[in-house]
Inverse folding.
């Protein structure tokens, strides 16, 4: 590998150097830069959500404490949930989609580079808008699921809920655009020979996730429109006094919400499906089965939403249906887990940090998955629903699954993005503090839940005798916070002066490792031809591919133009949505004008330089 | 992972140590048929999942230990899959899923079967942030402490006038939401949720609203008092007789229910407000006067047999018998009661009740401060506590 | 932005354009659609059909949708990837609409009532 | 947006341009969007507490007329595309004009019925029927309006010779949108107006 890498130094390059100023980042349409922006932004939001969580943990450390007011606590957990899901876990996964997918399939960029930039800016502005509510001391306070009728203007008269529904609908646009973009990219832009069944698993899971995005988000978008109309224009969708049914909100929310949780986990599954084979020096065991299992999870995930609603009273027939559908998901998930273990079986396992996080995921995600199975049993759920047992479940699957998977991906692909390794010693510290802190935080919650502590309460009676579990959780959270600091420290240090990484630092099999680290802005000077699932692991094929991909382009490849319309359009969309808060129809109509203008200008601007 | 195992072991020890502790809201300690059904199901699922967890962890530990990369490792065999294994780990879990799903579905139907004929109905209404219990058969309304006879099936009809609440008394069974009652056309029956169980032991059971319902959701607790059939009937009689509205019959007022029953208290007179005060504690008399004639209390609260018939707040008949105050969050004693009447928001932000010196402006409308003096507050407390 | 018509840009679809169908066919489809609409309305008005009205209407409107998608939107002549993409949305939509209708109108919503 | 695809310089795996493929994907997403609106309408069917009720106010005849107009606008749309592909600028412009005009007639008629319904007392806030009916059909109407603007822009670009046979795909994709909106109306017509 390195012999090829040296070639690049003296090749004459006909391609432009990439610009670096601030303006070039604002107008960039390069998927790699957008990915980095996504990652950095999501990490910052992770700290925001994390600090919110820490304040809650200190409030809950002892019974009958009141460090903060009930109202503030309600804002904190609502913002924590909303932030972590919509501004951390999802965009962080999207950061990886962006960076990795085009490289893995051998493309120069995503299908719609400007749309990609638009997604990012909308995400950023939507997130800022949501958090701007803190400035008005009016952060959303009706929980991340926003059940009607608590969100009605009668019971939530302030602007808190307005901030919530407006920013979520803004963020929805970014997600749908992202989903369309990645589906198109994956269907249409694969390098020669990259058949669907040769795609790396991460790309596959991106594909499935994108489907979930484009199908699930519209449902909540409509639900949010109903909510907005109820609040601002007096419609009666969720007004029981007028025959509206608050439970309908729950249906619509969870029809979105359950696919959403698979949106969170599937990217992580994708990451570890790439990481585990690399560090076991074995191809993924049962590749097609793992792919189909992922598709099946996504698909069945559409038919299980009411397992969040067993206490709502849907009747025994509906309950039974959703029990069965939910439990069936355990099977494909288990298949995946066993295939990963089988991949490691007989391998030669290197315990890099990326691999540690992947193994950690297997160990703790299973715990969360199994508590999910307990929830899925409707009668048992009647005891567990809305208690800390559920809080334990979903942090196990989200933090122990989704986040750990993404951190595995971080250590795995960081050398590609930066040309430098993340420090492995700090990495191991990061891993072990995460493991200890995480389990110490969330394992005791199983007990506090079972002993009767409901969730979303700002304090609890000393009579319940659950103080000890809460204290352990708080201590764990502090350790976990330290792990987060270690991670960021590692990122910052290694980005600047980490050990240099070659093109293929891990001896990994996929195309992204066939190009220099960091890649040229055009990724591939010429597109390689793929003949197998692990192109870089097959001797002849690897040499052929490296010969094509390691050089510099002799002529500037046809790359899209930078554009400032994405950021302007994103700003105008955010503005237009923000004006909805006024509830005055003509102000709202005025707000649409800049959106139209920007869309038009965008449409008229050439996406690519015209040089032919 | 090792840390995890170690952490798990420590926590298990903690759990064992904790077994002796009393958990009033323990969901693993069934005291009704309903809770028992759930518990058995839970235990069986628990062991299944522990078995699966053990399999996964053991395999994982084995792989991690056994297949570490070592100096001079050669390239491992490149195995791409194995059909038999795939079938095995699909069918195995599938069988387990079936083993879990079948009893689950049986329990689903068992816990939602039609109500038995002899069940006693109680209409439960979740308010922000307190519970109202109405017994249509007995014609009784009470709040925050549900009194039930032991061994008699009870059928709770759950509803709410505002937001979703969830009725949950873990030892007596699972929770079910009290959904806002959806208005229906004339002639149609509004739909309610129902919760059906038979308490099997007497005693106090703790419960709490389990659906986030706003600012004081954390303070929306409740108690269930399960009594013997006789005690329950006696309680119901006492409620209907409403001793609080009567001039007390002297210092030897019967304390215990059975005595009271034997005493055969006379039925409520018609004009309660004009009753003789007699040898009653003057503070109580003053309190009654304040409550019924001077303050706004009666606009929201009802006391059976008096002119207080408000229904915006808890029904306070027999309030003196309650062990808790303000939906289970405070012990019911004179100090707490006075403090509550003075300043409810100190205990329960956004409670729909005005304080002595602040107005209440909320979804229940506008209510001016009650402007009671300390003396009056003490009197009202004494009066309310005398209602037993 | 070039102002004259460019003869070649991405030659791929200039040929299969013809494959998209002829004007006559489009007009025929248009007529069929109109007729189906008319039949639907007739079914709506004719009392005799009351019992089978719903299934007939569902079948007819599905037929209309399929005609538009297949011919006006050319899905019939396109790469099957497009069919797969679009159908994934359609299938989930149908599933969701049916599920909600069943939940609300066919299953007893609440566990039981005395 | 219209331009994004025109600049597809590399052959794609499917031979379909990114623009078209992406747009079909977007339409799959729109299915769910309208599906949710339709579900809500169906769920609330028969729950309105106060009238007017659907059967009292809908005029199936009027709606049939507007529906047919919208159907024929779809026909005009394919013919416009056909004309663009055959470099018949004049026909293309006429057909596009027809599309816009029929869209306009449809909107006009529907708007007229809105006014009538409001007269009968059915408003956005009067009942679950009012809310779900107006938001469902209103969203559809906004889609039609957007389509008309899009067609207008295309017409202008054809008129100024910026769109010819090579760029026909821009018209084709706009057509996909228009037909999709038509499909939604076919479904709404049956579910809302015809099924009792
Ligand atoms: C990453 C996100 C994620 C993932 C992957 C999952 C996965 C699962 N979840 Fe979870 N869930 C959430 C995120 C997630 N969940 C969130 C955020 C909430 C709360 C929302 C809120 O209310 O705020 C929630 C709540 C939630 C509930 C509602 C609880 C309640 O509020 O009452 C239920 C109920 O059924 C449930 C079930 C499941 C199941 C069955 C799975 C399954 O997919 C798990 C499958 C995995 C395994 C089972 C382990 C591995 C399998 C094997 C080793 C094979 C053998 C196993 C068997 C045979 C059983 N989840
Ligand atoms: C991606 C999803 C995600 C993630 C990563 C997390 C991470 C954490 N969450 Fe979670 N959480 C949710 C999603 C998530 N959560 C959701 C959806 C809910 C439900 C909300 C609702 O009910 O509506 C919830 C609810 C929730 C609750 C329940 C609140 C309630 O019901 O009352 C609690 C309580 O402990 C909690 C704690 C934590 C903690 C301690 C972390 C830790 O992992 C966080 C660790 C990170 C950091 C700490 C950041 C590092 C910061 C620093 C190092 C700065 C130093 C700061 C200090 C030391 C103060 N969360
Ligand atoms: Cu009532 Cu929470
Ligand atoms: Cu779920």
């Amino acid at each position: 590998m390195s012999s090829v890498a040296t070639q690049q130094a003296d090749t004459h390059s006909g391609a432009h150097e990439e610009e670096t100023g601030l303006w070039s980042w604002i107008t960039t349409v390069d998927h790699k830069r957008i990915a980095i922006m996504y990652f950095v932004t999501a990490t910052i939001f992770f700290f925001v959500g994390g600090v919110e969580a820490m304040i809650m943990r200190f409030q809950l450390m002892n019974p009958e404490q009141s460090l903060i007011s009930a109202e503030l606590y309600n804002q904190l957990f609502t913002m924590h949930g909303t932030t972590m899901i919509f501004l951390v876990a999802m965009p962080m996964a999207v950061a990886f989609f962006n960076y990795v997918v085009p490289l893995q399939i051998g493309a120069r960029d995503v299908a719609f580079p400007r749309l990609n930039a638009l997604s990012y800016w909308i995400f950023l502005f939507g997130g800022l808008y949501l958090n701007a509510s803190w400035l008005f001391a009016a952060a959303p306070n009706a929980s991340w699921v926003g059940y009607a009728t608590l969100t009605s203007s009668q019971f939530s008269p302030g602007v808190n809920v307005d901030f919530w529904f407006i920013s979520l609908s803004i963020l929805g646009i970014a997600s749908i655009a992202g989903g369309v973009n990645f589906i198109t990219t994956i269907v249409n832009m694969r390098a020669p020979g990259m058949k669907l069944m040769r795609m790396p698993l991460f790309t596959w899971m991106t594909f499935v996730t994108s489907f979930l995005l484009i199908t699930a988000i519209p449902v909540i978008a409509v639900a949010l429109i109903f909510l907005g109309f109820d609040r601002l224009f007096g419609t009666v969708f969720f007004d029981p006094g007028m025959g509206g049914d608050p439970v309908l909100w729950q249906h619509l929310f969870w029809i979105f919400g359950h696919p959403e949780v698979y949106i969170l986990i599937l990217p992580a599954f994708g990451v570890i499906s790439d990481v585990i084979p690399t560090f076991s020096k074995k191809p993924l065991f049962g590749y097609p089965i793992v792919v189909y299992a992922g598709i099946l999870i996504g698909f069945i995930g559409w038919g299980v939403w009411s397992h969040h609603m067993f206490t709502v009273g849907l009747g025994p027939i509906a309950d039974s249906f959703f029990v069965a559908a939910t439990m069936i998901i355990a099977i494909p998930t288990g298949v995946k887990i066993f295939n990963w273990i089988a991949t490691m079986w007989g391998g030669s396992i290197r315990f890099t940090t990326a691999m540690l996080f992947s193994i950690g995921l297997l160990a703790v995600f299973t715990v969360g998955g199994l508590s999910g199975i307990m929830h899925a049993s409707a009668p048992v759920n009647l005891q567990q629903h809305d208690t800390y047992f559920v809080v334990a479940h979903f942090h196990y699957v989200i933090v122990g699954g989704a986040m750990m998977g993404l951190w595995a991906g971080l250590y795995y692909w960081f050398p590609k993005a930066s040309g430098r390794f993340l420090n492995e010693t700090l990495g191991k510290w990061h891993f072990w503090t995460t493991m200890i802190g995480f389990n110490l935080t969330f394992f005791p919650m199983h007990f506090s839940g079972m002993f009767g502590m409901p969730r979303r309460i700002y304090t609890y009676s000393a009579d319940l005798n659950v103080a000890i579990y809460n204290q352990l959780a708080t201590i764990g959270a502090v350790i976990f916070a330290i792990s987060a600091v270690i991670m960021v420290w590692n990122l910052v240090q290694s980005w600047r002066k980490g050990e240099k990484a070659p093109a293929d630092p891990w001896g990994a099999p996929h195309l992204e490792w066939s190009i220099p680290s960091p890649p040229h802005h055009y990724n591939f000077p010429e597109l390689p031809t793929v003949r197998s699932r692990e192109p870089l692991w097959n001797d002849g094929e690897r040499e052929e591919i490296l010969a094509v991909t390691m050089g510099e382009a002799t002529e500037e490849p046809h790359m899209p133009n930078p554009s400032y319309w994405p950021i302007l359009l994103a700003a105008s969309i955010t503005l237009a949505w923000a004006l909805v808060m006024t509830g005055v129809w003509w102000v709202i109509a005025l707000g649409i004008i800049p959106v139209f203008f920007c869309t038009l200008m965008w449409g008229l601007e050439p996406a690519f330089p015209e040089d032919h | 992972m090792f840390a995890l195992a170690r952490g798990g072991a420590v926590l298990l020890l903690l759990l064992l140590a904790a077994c002796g502790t009393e958990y009033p809201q323990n969901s693993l300690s069934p005291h009704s048929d309903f809770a028992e059904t759930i518990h058995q199901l839970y235990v069986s699922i628990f062991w299944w999942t522990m078995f699966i967890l053990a399999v996964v962890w053991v395999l994982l530990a084995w792989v991690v230990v056994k297949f570490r990369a070592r100096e001079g490792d050669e390239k491992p065999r490149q195995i791409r899959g194995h059909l038999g294994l795939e079938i095995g780990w699909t069918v195995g879990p599938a069988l387990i899923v079936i083993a879990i799903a079948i009893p689950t579905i049986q329990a689903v139907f068992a816990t939602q079967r039609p109500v038995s004929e002899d069940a006693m109905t109680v209409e439960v209404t979740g308010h922000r942030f307190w519970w109202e219990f109405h017994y249509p058969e007995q014609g009784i309304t009470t709040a925050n402490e549900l009194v039930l006879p032991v061994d008699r099936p009870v059928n709770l009809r759950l509803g709410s006038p505002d937001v979703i609440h969830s009725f949950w008394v873990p030892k007596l069974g699972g929770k079910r939401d009290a959904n806002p009652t959806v208005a229906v056309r004339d002639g149609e029956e509004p739909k309610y949720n129902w919760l059906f169980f038979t308490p099997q032991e007497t005693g106090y059971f703790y419960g709490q609203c389990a659906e986030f319902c706003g600012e004081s959701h954390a303070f929306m607790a409740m108690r269930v008092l399960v009594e013997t059939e006789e005690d329950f009937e006696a309680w119901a009689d006492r409620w209907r007789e409403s001793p609080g509205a009567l001039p007390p019959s002297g210092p030897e007022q019967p304390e215990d229910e059975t005595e009271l029953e034997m005493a055969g208290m006379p039925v409520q007179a018609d004009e309660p407000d004009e009753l003789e005060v007699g040898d009653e504690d003057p503070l109580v008399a003053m309190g009654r006067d304040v409550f019924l004639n001077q303050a706004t209390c009666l606009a929201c609260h009802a006391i059976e047999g008096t002119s207080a018939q408000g229904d915006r707040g808890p029904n306070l008949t027999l309030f003196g018998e309650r062990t808790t105050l303000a939906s289970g969050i405070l012990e019911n004693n004179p100090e707490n009661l006075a403090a509550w009447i003075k300043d409810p928001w100190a205990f329960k932000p956004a409670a729909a009740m005005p304080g002595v010196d602040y107005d209440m402006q909320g979804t229940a409308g506008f209510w001016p401060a009650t402007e009671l003096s300390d003396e009056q507050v003490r009197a009202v407390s004494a009066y309310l506590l005398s209602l037993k | 932005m070039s102002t004259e018509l460019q003869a070649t840009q991405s030659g791929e679809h200039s040929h299969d354009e013809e494959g998209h169908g002829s004007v006559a066919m489009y007009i025929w489809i248009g007529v069929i659609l109109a007729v189906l609409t008319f039949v639907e309305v007739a079914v709506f008005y004719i009392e005799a059909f009351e019992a089978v009205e719903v299934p007939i209407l569902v079948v007819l409107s599905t037929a209309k949708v399929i005609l538009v998608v297949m011919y006006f939107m050319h899905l019939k002549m396109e790469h099957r990837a497009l069919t797969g993409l679009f159908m994934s949305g359609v299938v989930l939509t149908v599933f969701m609409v049916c599920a909600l209708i069943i939940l609300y109108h066919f299953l007893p919503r609440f566990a039981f009532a005395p | 947006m219209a331009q994004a695809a025109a600049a597809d310089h590399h052959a794609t795996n499917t031979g379909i341009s990114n623009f078209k493929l992406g747009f079909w994907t977007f339409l799959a997403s729109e299915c769910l969007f309208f599906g949710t609106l339709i579900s809500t309408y169906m769920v609330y069917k028969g729950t309105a507490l106060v009238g007017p009720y659907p059967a009292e106010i809908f005029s199936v005849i009027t709606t049939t007329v507007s529906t047919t107009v919208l159907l024929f606008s779809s026909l005009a749309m394919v013919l416009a595309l056909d004309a663009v592909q055959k470099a018949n600028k004049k026909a293309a412009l006429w057909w596009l004009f027809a599309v816009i005009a029929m869209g306009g007639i449809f909107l006009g008629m529907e708007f007229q019925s809105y006014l009538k319904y409001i007269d009968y007392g059915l408003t956005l806030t009067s009942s679950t029927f009012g809310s779900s009916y107006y938001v469902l059909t209103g969203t559809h109407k906004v889609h039609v309006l957007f389509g008309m603007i899009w067609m207008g822009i295309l017409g202008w670009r054809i008129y100024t010779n910026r769109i010819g046979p090579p760029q026909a795909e821009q018209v084709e994709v706009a057509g996909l949108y228009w037909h999709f909106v038509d499909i939604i109306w076919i479904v709404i017509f049956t579910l809302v107006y015809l099924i009792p």
Q: What stands out?
A: The pocket of heme-A (ligand 2) is lined by residues A 47, 50-51, 53-54, 56-57, 77-78, 80-81, 84-85, 88-89, 143-144, 391, 395, 398-399, 403, 441, 455-456, 473, 477-478, 480-481, 484-485 (CB under 6 Å). Chain A touches chain B through 105 residues (CB under 8 Å). The CA atoms of residues 316 and 378 of chain A lie 9 Å apart.
